[in-house]
Write a structure and sequence with these properties.
Helices cover about 35% and strands about 25% of the residues. The protein is α+β, with helices and mostly antiparallel strands. The chain has a single domain, classed as Jelly Rolls. A hairpin with a 3-residue loop joins strand 6 and strand 7. The protein is globular and about 50 Å long. About 5% of the residues have low confidence.
């Protein structure tokens, strides 16, 4: 099963090419909730520099600490700009404008980056690199490892879809809970996880385009069965204790607590 690939170069083309690209993006958001993007404007040299920095930091400061941890011992014993462009396109595809649109609703947005290194695991059958969850925020851009996989998305309640290593400078994109709420469920945040692996270490550099903590989120359609209006900071506080729980139950709890 091929994960959709969106060529963002089409957004700068003629009307027909832009319309085709927007339609492809809409279908990927609606039917999948995750996709690859290419020709995104992030220079290959910068992406390589970021990956090199994370590898150096891990080698110099974290590797020995991890293997000295009780978890590792027990396993052995037991054998930015691109985000905002996508936000505008998503708003257009959903017919949202002004305060209802993603960019305005998230204002002032928070853009942050999380670096993660998953070391090779001697007993991948015993642990997960990261348990199944959805992301709390808005739009997530992932610079994936170009050699080692492990990321898996649950598509449509049917099957786990593996996301292979990065190819040809692509970035991986997925939708978070706040876009699902804003869209009234037209676009879904998708459950995903990271499998532990025995073959090599895996690099992950995730950039999050999220609402600011005081941004007020609400579904564009009042009749939608979603919480809102609520302050994103309140949602995030509740999410911390329910990240690995059922998303629908979390939405309902937020609706009772904060809406």
């Amino acid at each position: 099963m091929e994960i959709p690939v969106i060529d963002l170069k089409g957004l700068a083309g003629g009307d027909e090419e832009r319309e085709r690209t927007m339609a492809q993006l809409h279908e990927a958001c609606k039917a999948w909730g995750f996709f690859w993007v290419e020709n995104h404007g992030v220079e290959a040299a910068l992406m390589e520099e970021v990956k090199s920095f994370v590898y150096r930091h891990y080698d110099e400061h974290l590797e020995k600490k991890f293997y000295a941890s009780d978890l590792a011992k027990n396993l052995h014993l037991n054998k930015d700009d691109g985000a905002e462009l996508l936000a505008g396109c998503i708003s257009t595809n959903l017919g949202l404008a002004g305060a209802a649109g993603v960019v305005d609703a998230f204002a002032p947005p928070f853009v942050g980056t999380k670096f993660a290194m998953y070391p090779p695991c001697p007993r991948p059958d015993l642990v997960w690199g990261l348990r199944a969850h959805t992301d709390a925020g808005g739009i997530i851009l992932l610079l994936q490892d170009d050699a080692v996989g492990g990321l898996e998305f649950h598509r449509g309640g049917r099957e786990w879809v593996p996301v292979g290593p990065t190819r040809r400078g692509r970035l991986f994109v997925n939708i978070g809970d706040q876009v699902e709420v804003l869209s009234g469920g037209a676009y879904k945040s998708v459950v995903h996880r990271v499998a532990a692996g025995a073959e090599g270490r895996r690099l992950s550099v995730a950039t999050f385009y999220n609402p600011g903590p005081d941004a007020v989120i609400a579904p564009a359609t009042a009749a939608a069965p979603y919480p809102g209006p609520y302050r994103y900071g309140d949602y995030l506080d509740y999410y911390q204790g329910t990240k690995f729980g059922d998303k629908a139950a979390r939405f309902q709890a937020v609706k009772k607590l904060f809406s």
